[in-house]
Design goal:
The chain is of the alpha+beta class. The chain is built from four helices and eight strands. A six-stranded antiparallel sheet has the order 1-2-3-7-6-8, with helices on both faces.
Length: 174
Amino acid sequence: MNRMKDLAAILGAAALMAVVAACANGADPASPSDEVPPTVGETTPTGSNPTPIISHGAPVDDYVSLVDGLRAVGATVVPAGTVSQPFFTPYGRLITVGGQDVQAFEFASAEEADSVAGTVSADGISIGTSMVGWTAPPHFYKSGKLIVIYVGSDGDVIDALQEAMGSQFAGGDR
């Protein structure tokens, strides 16, 4: 019986140490984070890490490289949760770019993303069998296994997305 109490005390102390270590690193131990850790140069919420932004230099082909590519062109990027659209199978990740919402959908492969991109009409209003009533002009970008949607007309956001991902494949003008 004494051994059980000792084991419980050791496990409790180990769990407490893990929580303390997580808090010391700025993590919220109660909930896992789906946010991308700050890249070099990004200022953390406490204002530390003043090093200049340095890109990994890889082309955009997934969520992490999108965030990296946008930051490399000087955009302020903040992870903002998840998003779903009825016309795309995977859940997307919502980020703000310069304060504007941008939706990023990462597919299992570049071929799957190509296939889905082929269902988007030139104006971005129809996607497969869905007709969408956007609140502002939609802009669709595709690179690798990633499809990104920006609904709006902020020139800085459009420029950053084009610089990071290339020209839009569907959607409206600015």
